Amino acid sequence: MAREIRVAIDVRPLALGEVTGVGLVVTTLLTELETRGLRFVGVTDRPVPPGRLPETVPVVATGTAGGRIRWEGGALPRALRAIDPAPDLFHATWNHGVPPRLPFPSVLTVHDVIPWLLPQLVPWPRPAALHRWLYRRALRASTRAATWITTDSEASRRDLVRVLPGTEAKSEVVPISLPRWFRALPPEAASEARTKWNQGRPYWLYLGGFDPRKGIETSLAAMALAFPDPSRAPDLILAGGLNATGLALRAEAERLGVRARFPGYVDDRDLPSLFAGATLFLYPSRYEGFGLPLLMAMASGAPVVASDAGSVPEVLGDAGLLFPAGDATALAKVLARAAAITPEERAAIGERGRARAAGFSPDAFAERILRAYDRALGRRTASS
Question: What is the CA radius of gyration of the chain?
């Protein structure tokens, strides 16, 4: 890009109460691309809390009336058209939200199509049937309106093409990366981390959301099967914002006799320490479009046990062990095997994980996003 490019970008994932994976992707994108000469203006339905955006990024906050999809069809296009001077490009970062007939090109990032493929695993607002229909309509319309589309993984792109044929002609994979602030701690930090998180004892870790898609109930059942004597079982830390599902899972762990701690949402600055103390990372999701916690675990040298669902095998490679998603009996066998690995085996797996995580670099992520922006700008120029 020979001249400065101005990009309007949807920053709603940073306006939520707790920043999760999509929000981390947005902050990484902004940080990396600003250093490469791009200029951004954020658009959102509510204010972004201080400290979540670079100070150089102005934000247009329009108000939240009407719900997410109604906002995308009304307030968002008005806000985009009112930006002065007009941006060169709009980036919709949250699966849909590309208004039709914008006067400038657009890039849509579709992280996954879980609500389309597995609607039974989504905690829909009521009435669920109406919200499923609204989601499908919004995704279909956004993919049609978008000049170019990115997905986080080959698995997500394959599934998008399956549900919306024709998107293959204007889509590409842009694997996400760890943010630069995530610095894996050295092995000697493990003892201090365990003191902080588990009274000095080793622990197995899960980090992520608590909803039916994440498969935590499979992990709890598998732990009870693999270690019928709870006193001989590893401790579990299940980290993430506690909702009603999380509270129910905590009660289920108590019922099964699984030693599990639920520390709640963990701030970004504490994540390197949380991973440093883990002797294993457990990721039992029934479907993922990428799985950013996998990168954190691999970068930290923690062996990984994960499901074979969606993008997980693509991201994990040879840095861990897989089991069939949702199969507690199969997972129990893998966990028993994982508990018996030697320190030498654990170190070898850790090295493979670090090497693989290094391939998902912020530089590679930024260059591929820039290429997607170039393609969107080029397609609009060619068609105008």
Answer: 21
Backbone angles phi, psi at 261, to 5 degrees: -110, 140
Query: For residue 383, what pLDDT is reported?
Result: 53
pLDDT, tens digit (0-9, with 9 covering 90-100), for 166-213: 999 999 999 999 999 999 999 899 999 999 999 999 999 999 999 999
CA atoms within 13 A on the CB side of 14: 25
Q: How wide is the angle at C-alpha 370 spanned by C-alphas 369 and 372, nearest 5°?
A: 65
Rounded to two decimals, what is the model's pTM?
0.93
């992707």: which residue's tokens?
25
pLDDT digits (tens, 9 = 90+) for 356-380: 999 999 999 999 999 999 999 997 5
Closest by Cα among 359, 104, 334, 125 to 219 = 334
**b/e code 304-338 from CB counts within 10 Å (16+ = b):** bbbbebbbbebbbeebbbbbebebbebbbebbeeb
Task: Grade residue 236 by pLDDT with cuts at 50, 70 and 90.
Answer: very high
Own/partner contacts of 198-202, CB < 8 Å, gap of 24 or more, are 198/235, 198/237, 198/261, 198/277, 201/235, 202/234, 202/235, 202/277, 202/279
> Rounded to an integer, what distance in angstroms lies between the CA atom of residue 225 and that of residue 325?
16
Please report the beta strands in the chain, taking only residues with DSSP state E, as ranges in sequence order: 6-10, 39-44, 59-61, 89-92, 106-110, 148-151, 171-173, 203-207, 235-239, 260-264, 278-283, 304-307, 320-323
What pLDDT is attached to residue 1?
A: 46
Domains of the chain: 6-177+362-383 (3.40.50.2000), 187-358 (3.40.50.2000)
